[in-house]
Amino acid sequence: MNLILITSHIGFGVAKVLDSGHPSFKKGDLVWGNTKWEEYSLIANSQFLFKIQHTNVPLSYYTGILGMPGLTAYVGFYEICSPKRGENVFISAASGAVGQLVGQFAKLLGCYVVGSAGSKEKVDLLKNKFKFDEAFNYKEESDLDATLKRYFPEGIDIYFENVGGKMLDAVLLNMRGHGRIVGCGMISQYNLDKHEGVHNLINLIYKRVRIEGFIVTDYFHLYPKFLEFILPHIAEGKIVYVEDIAEGLESGPSALIGLFSGLNVGKQVVLVARE
Amino acid sequence: MNLILITSHIGFGVAKVLDSGHPSFKKGDLVWGNTKWEEYSLIANSQFLFKIQHTNVPLSYYTGILGMPGLTAYVGFYEICSPKRGENVFISAASGAVGQLVGQFAKLLGCYVVGSAGSKEKVDLLKNKFKFDEAFNYKEESDLDATLKRYFPEGIDIYFENVGGKMLDAVLLNMRGHGRIVGCGMISQYNLDKHEGVHNLINLIYKRVRIEGFIVTDYFHLYPKFLEFILPHIAEGKIVYVEDIAEGLESGPSALIGLFSGLNVGKQVVLVARE
After folding, report:
1. What is the C-alpha radius of gyration for chain A, rounded to an integer number of angstroms?
2. How far apart are CA A9 and CA A252, in angstroms?
């Protein structure tokens, strides 16, 4: 097994089968799934390995929009958030692999969509490429509560949580009644010795808000339904996707570290080998 | 309108109608609902006023088990928590108006039930009167995480949240996969200038946990269904209820303040007048 192995930061990648003793996979098949950070992999457990059927898209998409991040965005938004047309949607880390898709899904549904990101370049991407209604650079905002009140004078119905900490605290002050928060990631917190305290949880009661965390591996049974939904949208150009490709397996560690300071613009991919 | 007016801390009470211009209420009717802290009340808005139909119970029960706290326990447990037989249930402020009922509902369903409270007297009540499987005095525990691990070696499926702050933080470390937390109250936080930080929210994602806040006034349409459920259980002695009755309207303020330091044992009621 080898060749193209474009590994995402948790070891999901795209690969070509060199040899196989598994009845579902044969030599030459393209696959995506849990392939580890290496040029050649021996995969004993095929639970998280999927055969690639549609090749009229960049194969790297299977590390992103057509892989785990795509399914994550789909499940998190459609299954967990119970979104309704016209609702107010806020997405943090919005230019990332998942956030950029959630925003586009919400726009397809006729929602008002605002995203936060950490640079002018990313904010421009959100507004111009992904067609968010508004976007802001959280690093330039000294009072996130005031920022959210500016963009959501009537409050937030759905918050797609990718960062945690201070942003979540500000969001809790700005949720509307019966709002929903989906916990997808808390990237601001992973590398802290002690996680930041969140002080405004009492608003969950006052505003009747639901927070729900999920992990995409519980939803792989929805992958065929997701593909059926997303492929035509890609083909028609109604959903776009931005990747940040680092060349060479040796660039992997710095690309991984860069995620935590937001150096990547779009989905971070490591290109190990071209076909 | 006057006579028995047993007012709860947010102004819910029981009263007799002295005069009425409303077609649904007539002189002599007993009612419960939003009656304010006074001996005689003029009620212009009958939205939260209910006629008492069943009088073979102490009328004070309509400030508690048959009133808002009872419906709160019922909705919070059955509607929000999606409980299943045999699940592990933890209740904080468990001897209070709501907690004591949630625990008994969970026992009826065959759950394993543990409650926390703030005195030996309350802990004894939980174990001996309400038949919780276990109970502990949180004031005697220096490490709530360790305490919960002792009582829930396999984790918590359902947490009925009445206190917030440090207890919630410890619970988050001990939730099982796909657990549910219902946010009913956070009494430890109401009187703080700045609410305590909750540091362990990332477990919502790791454990796929849902937190949902609710307010009982959204569920008054379920009151008839709730009465149908609870009245036979009271008649058969399968559900018991403990009240802490303060005599006289003048005892109201100190009874209210006592709630925040846990002086009450059971539902705090203020007896304004006997019939």
Report:
1. 19
2. 8
**Rounded-to-integer distance, Cα B26 and Cα A139, Å:** 63
pTM of the entire predicted model: 0.89
Contacts (Cβ under 8 Å, ≥6 apart) of A123? A117, A135, A136, A137
B192 touching A, CB under 8 A? no
Do A20 and A38 contact (CB within 8 A), yes or no?
no
Best of B204, B209, B214, B217 to disrupt the A interface (most A CBs within 10 Å) is B204
Q: Please tell me whether residue B237 adopts helix, strand or coil conformation.
A: coil
Convert the pLDDT of each residue in B184-214 to its tens digit.
888 777 777 788 899 999 999 999 999 999 9
In total, chain B counts a number of residues equal to 275
**B215/A205 Cβ within 8 A:** yes
Give the list of residues 6+ apart from residue A144 with CB closer than 8 angstroms, or none.
A138, A166, A167, A169, A170
* Per-residue model confidence as pLDDT tens for chain A (275 residues): 333 434 334 578 899 999 999 999 999 999 998 888 888 888 888 888 999 999 999 999 999 999 999 999 999 999 999 999 999 999 999 999 999 999 999 999 999 999 999 999 999 999 999 999 999 999 999 999 999 999 999 999 999 999 989 999 999 999 999 999 999 888 777 777 788 899 999 999 999 999 999 999 999 999 999 999 999 999 999 999 998 888 888 888 888 888 888 888 888 888 888 76
**ipTM computed for the complex:** 0.86
Return the DSSP state at B71.
Answer: H
- The encoded tokens of residue A220 equal 């792989």
Helices (DSSP H) in B138-251: which residue ranges?
Answer: 144-151, 166-172, 203-206, 223-235
A69 phi, psi to nearest 5 deg: -60, -40
Q: Which residue has the tokens 């002690």?
A: A194
Residue for token pair 């403990």: B242
Are B206 and A184 in contact (CB < 8 Å)? no
Residue owning tokens 């102004």: B11
Task: Quote the minimal CA–CA distance from B209 to chain A in Å.
Answer: 5
Written as six digits, the tokens of A154 are 């009537």
Q: How far apart are CA A120 and CA A140, in angstroms?
A: 10
Domains and their CATH numbers in chain A? 6-63+241-271 (3.90.180.10), 68-216 (3.40.50.720)
- Rounded CA-CA distance A60/A18 in Å is 19
How many beta-carbon pairs below 8 A join chains A and B?
A: 96
Residues B259, B9 contacting (CB under 8 angstroms): yes
- The answer to whether the CB of A270 falls within 8 A of the CB of A251 is yes
Measure the CA–CA gap between B244 and B264, rounded to whole angstroms: 6
